[in-house]
Amino acid sequence: MKKQEYAIVDIETTGGNATHSRITEIAIVIHDGEKVIDRWETLVNPQKHIPDAIFALTGITNEMVCEAPVFDLISDRVFELLSDRVFVAHNVNFDYSFVRHELERAGLKWTAKKLCTVRAARKIKPGMLSYSLGRLCSSLDINLENRHRAGGDADATAILFSRLLEWDHDKVMDVMIKKTSQEQQLPPNLPKEDFDQLPDKPGVYYFYDEHKKVVYIGKAVNLKKRVASHFGGHKITPQRQHFLRDIYAITYEVCGTELMALLLECSEIKQLWPIHNKALKRFEPKFGLFEYEARNGYRYLAIGKLAKNQNCLETFDSIYSGINLLQELAKQFEIDQRFCKYGSMSDGVFTTQNDTGALPEIEIHNDSIQAAIDFYLNSRPSFAIIDKGRTTDERSCIWVENGHFFGMGYLDSDLVITNPSQVKEYLTPCKSNQYIMQLIFSYAQKHPETVHIQKVDDNFVAFE
Q1: At what angle do helices 319-332 and 362-379 cross, to 10 degrees?
Q2: What would the mean pLDDT of 109-132 be, rounded to a whole number?
């Protein structure tokens, strides 16, 4: 049987992703599992400008590569060196994505088993201060010359690989290079144990960076499948590469239902504001309904921009939603339009009409403002959504009070509910917004059997 051989690869590039960037230098060291048996390296003409920041890191200039071969001219040699060998690199998915993309551009279809020396070192030599190539070589007394050049980094990685083979008494790397191994897909800095602990249940998952800061929060119907989907495929955008490189740990929280997971995800993103969460951030309310009293004693209602952590009577995604509500309240409670503020012309929104008539009686007017506020705040529904729990011994509970999300939690299955104050004791309070309420109302309409309405009759409160 032919001995397994390894192609230890390092590349330098014009940027961080294979779609828009190109290789400027490549080095390939062939290892037979015992020693290095071949070595090849070359500069590559990327056919595009090398940014100053890349030059500062690698020292490779545009002048150095102008006479170098373009990748098409070396593609057959690269393909020959990589064929039937395990592709080895420090942070393997980065180098692999570039090489595969360049070979495809040259018309060569190629795939290979992969081995990441970052992941291998984490398993075989746990507890090191850092697993970056420079610091790892320093800790293990490996000579690293020409740092951030393909030849120097490839030679150092080959020495590291040889050391790992010597220390790998449990044949960890044999398992890692199997095509079916999950190791092929996981981010380089993520312990496999973090992924293995994920259950096949609905919930919320958290990705952490090397400083133990949450960088992404997601929800899932099936935690293990959803997290695995982040790591599969061959997308090579810079956002994806930075995202995967930032993941050092995963934790999770199981939820009783998908709705509970959705609401927890929204609340946690709002509180922690992770750097890689983009989608839900755009649902932040931008405008609010405010009430204030002027120096002359008259009370006003106004729709205006909402500052962070600013309190208001209601929030809106658009100023026009707020204007429509305020107009309806003004009409219903006969509030003088001069006491309703709608922004300014500079915002592209109309202002109050110019009316110089007599002002209403201050007490009557202020009572009308209070009546409108009381009506709006108290006319909105209060109800609970009671559904499946995380186990058969509990039920999930979402409480909406006066049209706003109050909180959520879990109740014992044998708990008899007779008063909403009982429910609140078991819930974690959460901040409400329009997006969350849309989720809740949509779920309530689709699953009316889970909705329990608060009714008031002779001062007795009950759920039905």
Answers
A1: 120
A2: 91
Count CB-CB contacts under 10 A for residue 264.
19
What pLDDT is attached to residue 133? 92
Residue 235 is predicted with a pLDDT of: 57
Q: What domains sit in the chain, N to C, each tagged with a CATH number?
A: 6-178 (3.30.420.10), 192-272 (3.40.1440.10), 287-376 (no CATH), 383-453 (no CATH)
Strand partners, 203: 220, 254
Buried b (16+ CB within 10 A) or exposed e, 365-395: bbebbeebbeebeeeeebbbbbbebbeeebb
Give the number of other Cβ atoms within 10 Å of residue 178's Cβ: 11
Tokens representing 389 are: 């729990």
Q: What are phi and psi of 200, to 5 degrees?
A: -90, 60
Confidence bin at 351 (pLDDT 50/70/90): very low
Which residues on adjacent β-strands are paired with residue 26?
11, 42
Which two three-digit tokens encode residue 169? 């008494």
Contact indicator for 371, 333 with CB cutoff of 8 Å? yes
Mean pLDDT of 129-153: 90
Closest CA to 22 of 77, 103, 81: 103
Place of tokens 């390939």: 28
pLDDT tens digits for 434-443?
A: 788 889 988 9
CB count within 10 Å of CB 447 equals: 13
Contact predicate 10/89, CB 8 Å = yes
* CA-CA-CA-CA dihedral for 372, 377, 381, 386, to nearest 10: 180
